[in-house]
Amino acid sequence: QRLAMNNCMIAHAAQQEQDAAREEWFATRDERRKEREAKEARKKEQEKFHRAWWGMPPLPEDEEPASTEGKR
Question: Which of 9, 34, 58, 60 is the most exposed place for a label (fewest CB within 10 A)?
């Protein structure tokens, strides 16, 4: 869908319309990044909850880091 929209924009839009679309894309870039990060955080929390609910061991990245004292 996005590819079709891009091809249509290239074929039919004037330079001013392309510039406006590009400005909008860059203006909302941080917002989209924050949305992606929030979605990823919700996904991890849900997976953590489901693992706890079903009594599964936590994923290695969810576990507390082991103490590194004395290790070199």
Answer: 60
